[in-house]
Amino acid sequence: xxxxxxxxxxxxxxxxxxxxxxxxxxxxxxxxxxxxxxxxxxxxxxxxxxxxxxxxxxxxxxxxxxxxxxxxxxxxxxxxxxxxxxxxxxxxxxxxxxxxxxxxx
Length: 105
Prior knowledge:
five-stranded mixed β-sheet; Aminopeptidase; alpha+beta; single chain; 4 helices; 5 strands
C-alpha cells in the first residue's frame, strides 16, 4: 500500500451533523513528495461532496490543509472540544455552509 485516507464521522455535542474528519491520512515514506497525499485528499473530498456531507474538520497541520481550501475553524465560531490539541495541531474546516455553522453554536 502506498497511501491511505479515511474519513471518520464527527459529532458536535453528541449530535450527528453529517460532518467528518480525515483520520488517518498516510503516505509511505518512499513515495512522499509525489503528490499522492494531495490526490488522496482531493479524491476524498470529491467523494464526500457526492455523498452530501456538510463539512470536514481537521486537527492537523493547518498549512497542509489550507492548500485544500480548509479555513481556520474559529472563522466560523467553532471551537475544538480539546483546546490543547487545537492549539498544538490546528483546527480547520472545509466546505462550511451558513446553515451548518449555525448548528454548531
